Amino acid sequence: MADESEVYFEITVIGASAKVAAVDAATAIEVAVVGPASGSLADLKRLALGKLKARIARERRAGGIP
Q1: Residue 2 belongs to a domain
Q2: Largest alpha-carbon pair distance within the chain?
Q3: Is the Cα torsion angle 45, 51, 57, 63 positive or negative in sign?
Q4: Which residue range or ranges hold the DUF6898 domain (predicted)?
Q5: Does residue 23 belong to any structural domain of this protein?
Q6: What is the pLDDT of residues 19-55, one digit of tens each?
Q7: Is the dihedral of CA 25, 63, 54, 44 positive or negative?
């Protein structure tokens, strides 16, 4: 994500859990994290974004995306 493409977030709350999915617009790579619904939404989004950046870096090293 060196070019800092757009990232879309989807938040789903089920009971006491919240799932935050992050999707990179340029590559369509999606990752998700789950945490407590009572926790900070900003923290869950930051965690999902970090996971997405790591996944994209791994894919680039493996030659899966340019």
Answers
A1: no
A2: 40
A3: negative
A4: 5-58
A5: yes
A6: 999 999 999 999 999 999 999 999 999 999 999 999 9
A7: positive
Residue 46 counted as domain residue: yes
Number of domains in the chain: 1
Select the more confidently predicted residue: 4 or 41. Answer: 41
27 is in which domain, residue-wise?
7-61
Binning pLDDT at 50, 70 and 90, where does residue 64 land? confident
Structure tokens at 10: 């989807």
Please enumerate in sequence order all residues whose Cβ is within 8 A of that of 31, keeping only pairs 6 or more positions apart, or say none: 21, 22, 48, 51, 52, 55
The residues, ordered by sequence, that sit 6+ positions from 62 with a Cβ below 8 Å of its Cβ are none
Strand locations in 1-66 (E): 7-14, 17-24, 30-36
Answer yes or no: is 66 within a domain: no
